[in-house]
Write a structure and sequence with these properties.
3 helices
């Protein structure tokens, strides 16, 4: 029993060595086949040219993938070399620098702070209305924005001056003057200063209709 076990272990060891070395997995080739394989060589280019047509080896046909179309990346949008500049000038007005032109008693006095009311474009004016002044009802061709800076501005609308229809607008008040709408101002309690913003060209047209005449803005 011991000898049989020894022989079994011996044969298993030999088989393991052969499997590990690859001897059992190699195909069996006879000496004659090995000699034929060694003699079988691929003919050279010159040999193929001299060989009869029927003996020439068939060239291997390879499928070549078509070339990929060349793609170019889309050009990136050009960035502006400089930001657009604004045409608005840089202005600074201090209260002591603003001087109203001298006018006859009872007449309003206007100073232009920005732009030109007689030309196209944005403008800003400031008007002094002396104490007790009543403006004649009038219209403007452009719509305006008015801010009361000083005093109490009594503002009314209509083709005739009517004290009972005025609205008291103290300093800090804001109102609009639509284009073509008749209106009037009364400085009842003291001097009044208003600041007006509009888009020219502007002007003033007096009412009533029977006595309309156009005057330019100072």
């Amino acid at each position: 029993m011991g000898r049989t076990s020894f022989l079994a272990v011996f044969f298993i060891a030999i088989i393991s060595v052969l499997l590990f070395s690859g001897q059992l997995t190699r195909p069996f080739v006879s000496p004659q086949q090995s000699q034929q394989l060694q003699q079988r060589q691929v003919p050279s280019v010159q040999q193929r040219q001299t060989m009869p047509q029927q003996q020439r080896p068939t060239p291997v046909q390879r499928q070549v993938a078509p070339p990929r179309p060349q793609t170019t990346a889309a050009p990136s949008p050009a960035l502006p070399t400089a930001l657009p500049t604004t045409e608005m000038p840089s202005l600074f007005w201090l209260p002591e620098d603003i001087e109203f032109p001298e006018m006859p008693p009872g007449a309003t006095s206007t100073v232009t702070l920005f732009g030109d009311p007689r030309a196209e474009g944005l403008y800003v004016t400031r008007t002094l209305i002396p104490h007790g002044t009543k403006t004649i009802p009038h219209t403007h061709p452009d719509s305006r924005i008015v801010t009361v800076l000083y005093g109490i501005c009594y503002y009314g609308r209509g083709e005739e001056f009517d004290e009972s229809r005025v609205i008291a607008m103290p300093a800090g008040s804001f109102f609009t003057e639509p284009a073509g709408v008749p209106h009037y101002i009364w400085a009842k309690d003291g001097d009044v200063i208003v600041q007006t913003t509009g888009i020219g060209p502007s002007g003033t047209q007096l009412v009533p209709a029977g006595n309309i005449h156009e005057i330019t803005v100072n």
